[in-house]
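[Automated response] Your request has been received and processed.

Submitted sequence:
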Amino acid sequence: MWESEGVTAAADRPVLLDRPVCILGLGLIGGSLLRALHDDGGTAYGYNRSPDTVDAATSSGYQASGDLVATLQRAATDDAVIVLATPVTTIDALLPTIAEHAATCLLTDVISVKQAVAQSVSKHAAGMRYVGGHPMAGTSRSGWEATDPHLFSDAMWMVTTEDDTDADDWSTVASIARAVGAFVVPAAPDAHDRAVAAISHLPHLTAGATAAVGAGESDLALRLAAGSFRDGTRVAATAPALQRAMLEANGIALLNVLSETIDRLIAARDELRDQGTVEILVDDGHRARLAYDAIAGAAPAPITGVTIGAPGWAEELRRQAHQARVWLG
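Generated structure:
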């Protein structure tokens, strides 16, 4: 069993993995994870269907293959943790092969939705052990050339935490996040999907709207554009296919926050038209941003008093995570 410690000691202590990690998909997130684990002395290897990506990874000194079956067979022999790091639209085709050749391995992922992935695992790899994950890290760039072994340093990494989650499997997945310098945020899949719809997926749509409106009918606005336009539209530069795969997989939660956003914008439009002011939305947004700055600008408070595997451990992790605390075990 693992027990949380104080923030300084736990944050400064390196976490060493005693399990190999097999990563399927070597784009920005999967490739960065491969590099981070390997560079820290861990055993990590990966698969990618693109020969160019495999060549780029191997020429840089990392273990990569374009042979999925051989990679999975190695993972089964090694008792490796398998990490799904491909777009959510691809996993239904991958999972039956994983279940056929590496059914005894622990499975996790780095995909930005959790309920959809859990449903796919249940349908296409029934019986496999699965604990979901999602590192809150990334850039608008993609592919092996965008990978960075320091991408996860001080990032938040959600690890699926349900009442029936196996304690040892949860600890193993959490240790992967900690090994690459991330803080672990325990959460239920539905709570995660609602949260990322608001703070990750909605910004892709608002960035797209801002970019499209800002482009206007000529390039004058784009020539004048500075920091607010640049920062507000950064994620719109992400490859459209990757954005759609992420956003559409979380459609229900995204619909809810999109509806709230539209309601707020309509109210702001009406307030501006009828009263000549946008006070309410500006004030609400300002207060919310200050609340974010207060949380993001401080060292994360650690989850305390929880022993993984003890009665009620998962519920207590989730409760403290909703207070913005993180697991540092």
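Summary generated for your ticket: The domain at 7-189+298-321 is CATH 3.40.50.720 (Rossmann fold). DSSP finds 14 helices and nine strands in the chain.
If you did not submit this request, please reply to this message.
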